[in-house]
Amino acid sequence: EHVDAADKVVESILQADIIVLGPGSLYTSVIPNLLVNDVAEAIRRSKAPRVYICNVMTQPGETDGYTAFDHVSAILEHAGDGIIDYCIVNNGEIPQKALKRYQEDGADIVEIDREKFLKAKIKLIEADLVNKDSEFARHNPRRLAFLIANFLSEKDGRLRGAKGVFIV
């Protein structure tokens, strides 16, 4: 019930140049890591930019009808405020074959509710991130890595010459 983070985990978070949450299943991959004692607090205390990568599609039975901000809200509800500075969302088109496949399973595109991000003062980063060569509606890992390394380094000079990235 109560799991303590290893000392090295907390130390790594505090020394990271950027902290990336996701992408992944919201309630079974992202949030559980934040429930480990001291992890969310270490993320909050970190001086590194904290980035959440929102899923491209909702997950049937888990995030039905969730918008991008609903994903962020769930994280904040479980881990507390102050752990997300940026949210990366896909604004590119999903290939029809992949979209049809997901919709048949009850999934849908995660909608971007920009106004809520403005209100919450969480910076929204929109980009075409879908892997167009896949039959799945997933992020293109190269595009995502490029975005994180380049866009955020432009926005936050701390990433220039970064030595470590902590990914949750």
Question: What's this model, at a glance?
Answer:
The protein has 168 residues and is an alpha/beta fold. The chain is built from seven helices and five strands.
Word description of this protein:
The protein has 168 residues and is α/β, with parallel strands linked by helices. Helices cover 40% and strands 12% of the residues. It contains seven helices and five strands. The chain has helices at 7-15, 26-34, 39-45, 68-79, 96-104, 114-120, 141-155, and strands at 18-21, 50-53, 86-90, 123-127, 165-167. The protein has a five-stranded parallel β-sheet with strand order 4-3-2-1-5, with helices on one face. Helix 2 packs parallel to helix 4. The longest helix has 15 residues, at 141-155. The protein is globular, with a radius of gyration of 16 Å. Residues 162-168 have low confidence and may be disordered.
